[in-house]
Amino acid sequence: MIVIIDYNVGNLKSVTNAFRRIGLETVVSRDHNVIRQAKGIVLPGVGTFLIAMENLKKYDLIDILNERKEAGIPILGICLGMQILFEKGYEITETKGLGYLQGEVKFMKTDEKIPHMGWNELHICKQHPLLKYIHENDYVYFVHSYMAYTTPQQLISYCDYGDLQVSSVVAKDNVMGCQFHPEKSGEVGKKILLAFKEMIS
Question: Fewer Cβ close by (within 10 Å): the C or N end of the chain?
Answer without folding.
Answer: C
